[in-house]
Specification:
The protein has helices at residues 2-23, 26-57, 63-72, 83-92, 109-121, 129-133, 193-198; strands at residues 102-103, 106-107, 140-141, 152-155, 166-170, 175-180, 184-189, 199-203. The protein has 209 residues and is α+β, with helices and mostly antiparallel strands. It has two domains: 2-57; 63-208, endopeptidase domain like (from Nostoc punctiforme) (endopeptidase fold (from Nostoc punctiforme)), CATH 3.90.1720. Helix 4 runs antiparallel to helix 5 (109-121).
Length: 209
Amino acid sequence: MKIKLLFLLLIVLFTSCGKKTYNGTDYLYYKNEMAKAKEQQKATENTKIEEVKNNEQSSYLTKEEKLKFATLLETSEENIKNEKLYATINEWLGVPYLWGGNSKKGIDCSAFVQQVYEDVYDHSLPRTSIEQFYEDTKAHFQDQQYLEEGDLIFFRLRHKDKVVSHVGIYLQNGKFLGSNSPRGVEIVDLNSVYWQDKYVASSRLLNNQ
């Protein structure tokens, strides 16, 4: 009997609490508080995601390395944004040019471009410069004022060459990256007379993935 009375008492208690919660003004208050808590939690999660991204982007280069690339590109350190790209370049700078080579013992222009695109942009390219040139002809353009970091730049080194025979990657401020004979992997000035005389076209493949 006592158990039945206790059970009935609990039912009445919970019923009255439920009515008070759902029918009283407390319901709106708690509903608003729950909504605020969810918004705050979402904002906190977004902040953490951004912090992780920022930490990932800023974990590739030391301050000295960042300054080195800013000096090579004749720009400010703030413009060295894609640290993964420049960290990859840092690993390859000075590697000798070797026709047909594809390692740090020696590498040619197209193999180097292929390697950088794979490591930095997770974008697969064909092996040779002529194949890379024809990868997507709709992505071609000639006006160098529209060049952006990551664009491919194609050259014809000898007039007897068919279409193109050399490829590099544009960086910024008129500088591009390539494995150039005989010096190997280096950052050079696209605006020099030598390279301007041999320039054919550029290609933006990264926006067409």
